[in-house]
Amino acid sequence: MIGLRMKRKYTTPLHIQTKKLWLHLILLLVTAISFFPFYWLIVMATNQTSDIFGYPPKLSFGTHLGENIANVLKSINFFGAFANTMFIALTETTLVLFFCSLAGFTFAKFTFRGRNLLFVILLGTMMIPSQLSAVPSFVLMARLGWVSSFKALIIPGMVTAFGVFWMRQYAGSSVPGELVDAGRIDGCGHLRLYWHVALPILRPALAFLGIFTFIHAWNDYMWPLIILNDPAKYTLQVALSQLDNVYGSDYGMVMAGTLMATVPLIIIFLIGSRHFIANIAAGALKE
User: Residues in domain ABC transmembrane type-1 (predicted)?
Assistant: First the structure.
């Protein structure tokens, strides 16, 4: 009798098991739908154009990936554009992480005259579409002599309104005011408070902002297309846009180039998301 009671007590009811089953099925369906565009990209990159537009559509991998990649490498300076994009994305991400976290920490934990007004102006800049600032930005870069220079891509983007807003919100809720006051009592200046007190706590927010900034810099197409006129300095997105002009409608080659440009983003996301989750878990354990 006791064993029967214990079994009844710890047996999961049927309706709860059914709900869990449906939940897992829905999650699997959503995952499949989310993964399908990437799967279709790989399928197109491994097939020829005739296979892509065939009817019914070919959903299996082909055998032309090596041929398509070879056509990409013959058509554009892929590795040169890859190196340019990697340098720009890494430099811009590093600068954004430093300046935005420093500004966000300052807005969150320091009181100074005009703080609220400056923050409202900062939020106002987020409402302006980037396309509206393209012409004034180009005129400014031309007067500075930065046209077709990496400085025109890195320096205007080294601080972003979203980055400051994100770090300010995170620092305001995660960095204890008592910890900042204790640092002041110990004689820490503003930069030491930022480096030794705030920065270790801000790591999860920095991981997210780093992933977001790197992907944005890697995928940026409009501004590099406007500001760069030297093919040797083309970024990856601008170089890939030349494929359609070279080979017309060879979509297998275009998709192969797109796949080659996407793989680094996946690697960066996997590395960054792992640190993001690990830092959140470490913070939860400390609490």
Answer: 82-272
